[in-house]
């Protein structure tokens, strides 16, 4: 089995990470590609009361079980199948359901803190940061949370101002300096996505 190519895609909430990821995956025809979302790895909180779980700051690096993510990536690179956790957002803890992942040519790790952890970063062959203006990011988050998650506009704005924005400035924005390439404006930047796809294809072919 050829060595696995690991791609990290980071950026703030609403930056367009998912659009960039999907377009890169669609462009990698002929290769087996897996997407691992960092959100799968929110920490298990079953030892806490429900009221305590409600206080979790999901926009802080400590909310993620990076040790498990790193171990899963190592196993996949070694050719072993892994069981990836999932998160129950209703009960604010890890679900009993897991997702079976097979080793692939390319593994994309996508998440707001994909470039924050040094050990995780060092496993990546390509590091991407999706950079989008704050006004666009909050508008996208507002639309998503009110339409898809049943949130009120006031609650989304309050969370953004009290938690999301300060956490972005403290922990996410600084990871931009670790990126091999910064993609402005997310999925609409076709030129940058095409360049990254070509680079990833060349890396995979070189490893083959």
Automatic annotation (TrEMBL):
Residues annotated to bind ATP: 11-18
The family this protein is said to belong to: Belongs to the uridine kinase family.
PANTHER family to which the protein is assigned, alphabetical: URIDINE KINASE
Subcellular location: Cytoplasm
NCBIfam families: PRK05480.1, udk
Name the record gives this protein: Uridine kinase
Domain AAA+ ATPase: 3-158
Protease as UniProt keyword: no
Protein EC: 2.7.1.48
């Amino acid at each position: 089995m050829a060595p696995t190519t690991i791609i990290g895609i980071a950026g703030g909430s609403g930056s367009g990470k998912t659009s960039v990821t999907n377009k890169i995956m669609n462009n990698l025809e002929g290769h087996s590609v897996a997407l691992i979302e960092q959100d799968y790895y929110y920490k298990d909180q079953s030892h806490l009361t429900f009221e305590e779980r409600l206080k979790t700051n999901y926009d802080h690096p400590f909310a993620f079980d990076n040790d498990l993510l790193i171990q899963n990536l190592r196993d996949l690179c070694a050719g072993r199948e892994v069981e990836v956790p999932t998160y129950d957002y209703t009960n604010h803890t890890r679900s009993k359901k897991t997702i079976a992942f097979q080793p692939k040519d390319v593994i994309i790790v996508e998440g707001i803190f994909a470039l924050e952890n040094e050990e995780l970063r060092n496993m990546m062959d390509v590091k991407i940061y999706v950079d989008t203006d704050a006004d666009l990011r909050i508008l996208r988050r507002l639309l998503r949370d009110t339409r898809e998650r049943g949130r009120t506009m006031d609650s989304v704005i309050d969370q953004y101002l009290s938690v999301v924005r300060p956490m972005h400035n403290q922990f996410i924005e600084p990871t931009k300096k670790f990126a091999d390439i910064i993609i402005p404006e997310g999925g609409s930047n076709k030129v940058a996505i095409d360049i990254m796809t070509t680079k990833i294809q060349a890396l995979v072919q070189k490893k083959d």
